[in-house]
Amino acid sequence: MKKTRNTRQRGVILDILRESHEHPTAEMIYRESRRVLPHISLGTVYRNLNFLRDQGTVREIRPCEGGSSRFDRADTPHAHFHCVRCNALLDIPLPPALESLRFEEERISAVSLIDLHVIGSCSSCGEATTN
Amino acid sequence: MKKTRNTRQRGVILDILRESHEHPTAEMIYRESRRVLPHISLGTVYRNLNFLRDQGTVREIRPCEGGSSRFDRADTPHAHFHCVRCNALLDIPLPPALESLRFEEERISAVSLIDLHVIGSCSSCGEATTN
DNA sequence: GTAATTGCAAAAGATTTGCCCCATT
DNA sequence: AATGGGGCAAATCTTTTGCAATTAC
Lengths: 131, 131
Description:
The structure is a homodimer. By secondary structure, chain A is α+β, with helices and mostly antiparallel strands.
Protein backbone atom coordinates (compact mmCIF):
# COMPACT_ATOMS: atom_id res chain seq x y z
CA MET A 1 0.00 0.00 0.00
CA LYS A 2 1.34 3.38 -1.04
CA LYS A 3 1.77 6.00 1.63
CA THR A 4 -0.09 9.22 0.95
CA ARG A 5 0.89 12.67 2.06
CA ASN A 6 -1.13 15.54 3.34
CA THR A 7 -0.21 18.27 0.99
CA ARG A 8 -1.51 21.77 1.25
CA GLN A 9 -2.98 21.40 -2.23
CA ARG A 10 -5.00 18.33 -1.35
CA GLY A 11 -6.25 19.97 1.81
CA VAL A 12 -7.37 23.09 0.01
CA ILE A 13 -9.19 21.10 -2.64
CA LEU A 14 -11.01 19.13 0.03
CA ASP A 15 -11.91 22.31 1.87
CA ILE A 16 -13.39 23.80 -1.26
CA LEU A 17 -15.43 20.68 -1.85
CA ARG A 18 -16.58 20.74 1.75
CA GLU A 19 -17.76 24.30 1.59
CA SER A 20 -19.23 24.40 -1.87
CA HIS A 21 -22.79 23.40 -2.54
CA GLU A 22 -22.68 23.84 -6.27
CA HIS A 23 -20.84 20.71 -7.32
CA PRO A 24 -17.91 22.50 -8.89
CA THR A 25 -15.98 21.37 -11.94
CA ALA A 26 -12.23 20.81 -11.79
CA GLU A 27 -11.80 24.17 -13.44
CA MET A 28 -13.94 25.92 -10.82
CA ILE A 29 -12.01 24.23 -8.04
CA TYR A 30 -8.82 25.29 -9.74
CA ARG A 31 -9.87 28.93 -9.90
CA GLU A 32 -11.05 28.86 -6.34
CA SER A 33 -7.93 27.20 -5.01
CA ARG A 34 -5.73 29.78 -6.69
CA ARG A 35 -7.05 32.35 -4.27
CA VAL A 36 -5.18 30.47 -1.56
CA LEU A 37 -2.43 28.80 -3.58
CA PRO A 38 -1.71 31.08 -6.52
CA HIS A 39 0.69 28.60 -8.08
CA ILE A 40 -1.39 25.47 -7.98
CA SER A 41 -1.83 23.91 -11.39
CA LEU A 42 -4.89 22.46 -13.05
CA GLY A 43 -3.07 19.16 -13.42
CA THR A 44 -2.69 18.96 -9.67
CA VAL A 45 -6.37 19.59 -9.20
CA TYR A 46 -7.21 16.78 -11.59
CA ARG A 47 -4.68 14.44 -10.03
CA ASN A 48 -6.08 15.07 -6.58
CA LEU A 49 -9.68 14.75 -7.63
CA ASN A 50 -8.93 11.41 -9.25
CA PHE A 51 -7.04 10.30 -6.21
CA LEU A 52 -9.85 11.29 -3.87
CA ARG A 53 -12.42 9.69 -6.13
CA ASP A 54 -10.53 6.40 -6.25
CA GLN A 55 -10.15 6.59 -2.50
CA GLY A 56 -13.91 7.05 -2.19
CA THR A 57 -13.75 10.46 -0.57
CA VAL A 58 -15.25 12.41 -3.42
CA ARG A 59 -17.72 11.52 -6.08
CA GLU A 60 -17.45 12.40 -9.74
CA ILE A 61 -20.68 13.27 -11.46
CA ARG A 62 -20.62 13.19 -15.22
CA PRO A 63 -23.18 15.56 -16.68
CA CYS A 64 -25.71 13.76 -18.85
CA GLU A 65 -24.87 15.77 -21.90
CA GLY A 66 -21.37 17.06 -22.54
CA GLY A 67 -19.28 19.44 -20.47
CA SER A 68 -16.95 18.65 -17.62
CA SER A 69 -17.37 16.40 -14.66
CA ARG A 70 -18.57 17.86 -11.43
CA PHE A 71 -17.54 16.79 -7.98
CA ASP A 72 -18.90 16.50 -4.50
CA ARG A 73 -18.00 14.91 -1.24
CA ALA A 74 -19.12 11.32 -0.97
CA ASP A 75 -20.08 11.53 2.68
CA THR A 76 -23.70 10.42 2.74
CA PRO A 77 -25.48 8.47 0.02
CA HIS A 78 -27.66 10.74 -2.04
CA ALA A 79 -29.00 11.19 -5.54
CA HIS A 80 -28.64 14.15 -7.85
CA PHE A 81 -31.09 16.38 -9.58
CA HIS A 82 -29.89 18.13 -12.66
CA CYS A 83 -31.69 21.18 -14.01
CA VAL A 84 -31.41 21.27 -17.77
CA ARG A 85 -32.16 24.95 -17.85
CA CYS A 86 -29.78 26.55 -15.40
CA ASN A 87 -27.46 23.58 -15.21
CA ALA A 88 -27.69 23.46 -11.44
CA LEU A 89 -26.90 20.19 -9.76
CA LEU A 90 -28.71 19.54 -6.49
CA ASP A 91 -28.29 16.83 -3.93
CA ILE A 92 -31.55 15.07 -3.25
CA PRO A 93 -32.22 12.23 -0.86
CA LEU A 94 -31.82 8.77 -2.27
CA PRO A 95 -35.32 7.33 -2.43
CA PRO A 96 -35.57 4.71 0.34
CA ALA A 97 -36.89 2.28 -2.23
CA LEU A 98 -33.45 2.30 -3.77
CA GLU A 99 -31.39 1.81 -0.67
CA SER A 100 -32.98 -1.52 -0.01
CA LEU A 101 -33.20 -2.48 -3.61
CA ARG A 102 -32.33 -6.04 -4.34
CA PHE A 103 -31.36 -6.77 -7.89
CA GLU A 104 -32.79 -10.08 -8.95
CA GLU A 105 -30.45 -10.34 -11.83
CA GLU A 106 -28.40 -13.40 -12.31
CA ARG A 107 -26.09 -11.25 -14.43
CA ILE A 108 -25.21 -9.04 -11.48
CA SER A 109 -22.72 -10.35 -8.97
CA ALA A 110 -22.11 -7.37 -6.70
CA VAL A 111 -23.34 -3.81 -6.49
CA SER A 112 -20.91 -1.21 -5.27
CA LEU A 113 -22.68 2.02 -6.11
CA ILE A 114 -26.10 3.22 -7.10
CA ASP A 115 -26.11 6.34 -9.15
CA LEU A 116 -29.44 8.05 -9.58
CA HIS A 117 -29.77 11.13 -11.70
CA VAL A 118 -33.03 12.92 -12.00
CA ILE A 119 -33.16 15.31 -14.89
CA GLY A 120 -35.68 18.09 -15.26
CA SER A 121 -36.16 21.70 -14.36
CA CYS A 122 -35.76 23.19 -10.94
CA SER A 123 -38.24 25.46 -9.25
CA SER A 124 -36.22 28.60 -9.86
CA CYS A 125 -36.29 27.96 -13.59
CA GLY A 126 -39.34 25.85 -13.69
CA GLU A 127 -42.93 26.90 -13.23
CA ALA A 128 -43.15 28.49 -16.69
CA THR A 129 -43.15 26.42 -19.89
CA THR A 130 -42.12 22.83 -19.31
CA ASN A 131 -40.83 22.88 -22.86
CA MET B 1 -39.63 22.79 -37.85
CA LYS B 2 -36.68 21.59 -39.87
CA LYS B 3 -37.25 18.86 -42.41
CA THR B 4 -35.10 15.78 -41.84
CA ARG B 5 -33.86 13.38 -44.46
CA ASN B 6 -33.40 9.66 -44.45
CA THR B 7 -29.82 9.31 -45.39
CA ARG B 8 -28.15 5.99 -45.83
CA GLN B 9 -25.72 6.95 -43.08
CA ARG B 10 -28.44 7.60 -40.56
CA GLY B 11 -30.16 4.36 -41.45
CA VAL B 12 -27.02 2.30 -41.06
CA ILE B 13 -26.26 3.86 -37.69
CA LEU B 14 -29.75 3.07 -36.46
CA ASP B 15 -29.48 -0.49 -37.73
CA ILE B 16 -26.24 -0.98 -35.87
CA LEU B 17 -27.82 0.34 -32.71
CA ARG B 18 -30.81 -1.90 -33.23
CA GLU B 19 -28.75 -5.02 -33.60
CA SER B 20 -26.07 -4.39 -31.04
CA HIS B 21 -26.50 -5.35 -27.42
CA GLU B 22 -23.22 -3.99 -26.19
CA HIS B 23 -23.99 -0.27 -26.05
CA PRO B 24 -21.34 0.75 -28.56
CA THR B 25 -19.34 3.95 -28.48
CA ALA B 26 -19.37 6.37 -31.41
CA GLU B 27 -16.05 4.95 -32.46
CA MET B 28 -17.39 1.39 -32.45
CA ILE B 29 -20.40 2.44 -34.47
CA TYR B 30 -18.07 4.22 -36.84
CA ARG B 31 -15.92 1.14 -37.38
CA GLU B 32 -18.96 -1.05 -37.80
CA SER B 33 -20.66 1.29 -40.24
CA ARG B 34 -17.57 1.42 -42.41
CA ARG B 35 -18.16 -2.20 -43.34
CA VAL B 36 -21.21 -1.00 -45.20
CA LEU B 37 -20.27 2.60 -45.98
CA PRO B 38 -16.51 2.68 -46.30
CA HIS B 39 -16.43 6.46 -46.65
CA ILE B 40 -18.56 7.46 -43.72
CA SER B 41 -16.78 9.80 -41.37
CA LEU B 42 -16.60 9.84 -37.62
CA GLY B 43 -18.03 13.35 -37.66
CA THR B 44 -21.13 12.07 -39.39
CA VAL B 45 -21.54 9.36 -36.81
CA TYR B 46 -21.34 11.92 -34.02
CA ARG B 47 -23.70 14.29 -35.79
CA ASN B 48 -26.27 11.57 -36.27
CA LEU B 49 -25.99 10.25 -32.77
CA ASN B 50 -26.54 13.74 -31.42
CA PHE B 51 -29.45 14.25 -33.74
CA LEU B 52 -31.06 10.97 -32.74
CA ARG B 53 -30.45 11.67 -29.11
CA ASP B 54 -32.08 15.09 -29.29
CA GLN B 55 -34.95 13.55 -31.17
CA GLY B 56 -35.35 10.98 -28.39
CA THR B 57 -34.62 7.95 -30.51
CA VAL B 58 -31.35 6.99 -28.92
CA ARG B 59 -29.99 7.43 -25.47
CA GLU B 60 -26.49 8.53 -24.60
CA ILE B 61 -24.95 6.88 -21.59
CA ARG B 62 -21.97 8.62 -20.10
CA PRO B 63 -19.70 6.18 -18.34
CA CYS B 64 -19.27 7.02 -14.68
CA GLU B 65 -15.54 7.29 -14.93
CA GLY B 66 -13.99 8.70 -18.08
CA GLY B 67 -13.98 7.27 -21.56
CA SER B 68 -16.45 7.82 -24.35
CA SER B 69 -20.20 7.88 -24.29
CA ARG B 70 -22.09 4.77 -25.18
CA PHE B 71 -25.37 4.59 -26.96
CA ASP B 72 -28.50 2.53 -27.09
CA ARG B 73 -31.97 2.74 -28.52
CA ALA B 74 -34.36 4.56 -26.27
CA ASP B 75 -37.29 2.26 -26.96
CA THR B 76 -38.37 1.07 -23.52
CA PRO B 77 -37.46 2.68 -20.21
CA HIS B 78 -34.73 0.75 -18.48
CA ALA B 79 -31.78 1.21 -16.18
CA HIS B 80 -28.16 0.29 -16.75
CA PHE B 81 -25.74 -1.89 -14.94
CA HIS B 82 -22.10 -1.11 -15.44
CA CYS B 83 -19.44 -3.70 -14.66
CA VAL B 84 -16.30 -1.97 -13.47
CA ARG B 85 -14.19 -4.96 -14.31
CA CYS B 86 -15.02 -5.86 -17.88
CA ASN B 87 -16.64 -2.55 -18.67
CA ALA B 88 -19.80 -4.23 -19.89
CA LEU B 89 -22.97 -2.19 -19.87
CA LEU B 90 -26.17 -4.17 -19.40
CA ASP B 91 -29.77 -3.12 -19.66
CA ILE B 92 -31.65 -3.96 -16.51
CA PRO B 93 -35.32 -3.36 -15.75
CA LEU B 94 -36.13 -0.06 -14.13
CA PRO B 95 -37.14 -0.88 -10.56
CA PRO B 96 -40.91 -0.36 -10.28
CA ALA B 97 -40.25 1.77 -7.24
CA LEU B 98 -38.74 4.35 -9.53
CA GLU B 99 -41.47 4.52 -12.11
CA SER B 100 -43.94 5.70 -9.57
CA LEU B 101 -41.49 7.79 -7.67
CA ARG B 102 -42.76 11.13 -6.58
CA PHE B 103 -40.18 13.69 -5.62
CA GLU B 104 -41.28 15.67 -2.65
CA GLU B 105 -38.83 18.37 -3.30
CA GLU B 106 -39.92 21.93 -3.44
CA ARG B 107 -36.77 22.59 -5.42
CA ILE B 108 -37.87 20.34 -8.27
CA SER B 109 -40.42 21.69 -10.68
CA ALA B 110 -40.58 19.02 -13.37
CA VAL B 111 -38.90 15.69 -13.99
CA SER B 112 -38.21 14.74 -17.56
CA LEU B 113 -35.93 11.77 -17.20
CA ILE B 114 -34.74 9.37 -14.58
CA ASP B 115 -31.35 7.89 -15.09
CA LEU B 116 -30.35 4.98 -12.91
CA HIS B 117 -26.90 3.49 -13.09
CA VAL B 118 -25.96 0.55 -11.00
CA ILE B 119 -22.24 0.03 -10.73
CA GLY B 120 -20.60 -3.16 -9.61
CA SER B 121 -19.31 -6.38 -11.04
CA CYS B 122 -21.18 -8.71 -13.31
CA SER B 123 -21.49 -12.44 -12.85
CA SER B 124 -18.98 -13.27 -15.56
CA CYS B 125 -16.32 -11.24 -13.78
CA GLY B 126 -17.74 -11.36 -10.36
CA GLU B 127 -17.89 -14.31 -8.07
CA ALA B 128 -14.19 -14.08 -7.12
CA THR B 129 -12.81 -11.19 -5.04
CA THR B 130 -15.19 -8.30 -4.71
CA ASN B 131 -12.10 -6.16 -4.43
C1' DG C 1 -33.74 23.33 -57.36
C1' DT C 2 -33.05 23.71 -52.50
C1' DA C 3 -31.56 22.83 -48.16
C1' DA C 4 -30.19 19.07 -45.21
C1' DT C 5 -26.38 16.22 -44.77
C1' DT C 6 -21.89 14.49 -45.75
C1' DG C 7 -16.55 14.06 -45.73
C1' DC C 8 -12.59 15.89 -44.48
C1' DA C 9 -9.59 18.19 -41.67
C1' DA C 10 -8.86 21.43 -38.40
C1' DA C 11 -10.36 23.13 -33.86
C1' DA C 12 -11.99 22.91 -29.42
C1' DG C 13 -12.54 21.08 -24.86
C1' DA C 14 -11.40 18.09 -21.12
C1' DT C 15 -8.24 15.33 -18.93
C1' DT C 16 -3.84 12.93 -18.53
C1' DT C 17 1.10 12.49 -18.52
C1' DG C 18 6.38 13.10 -18.57
C1' DC C 19 9.83 15.23 -16.43
C1' DC C 20 12.31 17.44 -13.11
C1' DC C 21 12.11 19.91 -8.81
C1' DC C 22 10.25 20.52 -4.14
C1' DA C 23 8.27 19.30 0.33
C1' DT C 24 6.36 15.97 3.57
C1' DT C 25 7.39 12.36 6.39
C1' DA D 1 17.24 11.03 2.83
C1' DA D 2 13.72 9.01 0.48
C1' DT D 3 9.90 9.44 -2.34
C1' DG D 4 5.13 11.12 -2.94
C1' DG D 5 3.38 14.96 -4.89
C1' DG D 6 3.58 19.48 -7.45
C1' DG D 7 4.23 22.74 -11.58
C1' DC D 8 4.49 23.31 -16.17
C1' DA D 9 3.78 22.21 -20.78
C1' DA D 10 3.09 18.93 -24.12
C1' DA D 11 0.30 15.07 -25.39
C1' DT D 12 -3.92 12.48 -25.71
C1' DC D 13 -8.54 11.53 -26.21
C1' DT D 14 -13.24 12.72 -27.33
C1' DT D 15 -16.32 15.50 -29.57
C1' DT D 16 -17.52 19.51 -32.36
C1' DT D 17 -17.29 22.54 -36.33
C1' DG D 18 -16.39 25.19 -40.88
C1' DC D 19 -16.71 24.57 -45.50
C1' DA D 20 -17.28 22.98 -50.07
C1' DA D 21 -19.40 19.11 -52.38
C1' DT D 22 -23.20 15.89 -52.47
C1' DT D 23 -27.78 14.01 -52.22
C1' DA D 24 -32.59 13.31 -50.65
C1' DC D 25 -36.77 15.28 -51.35
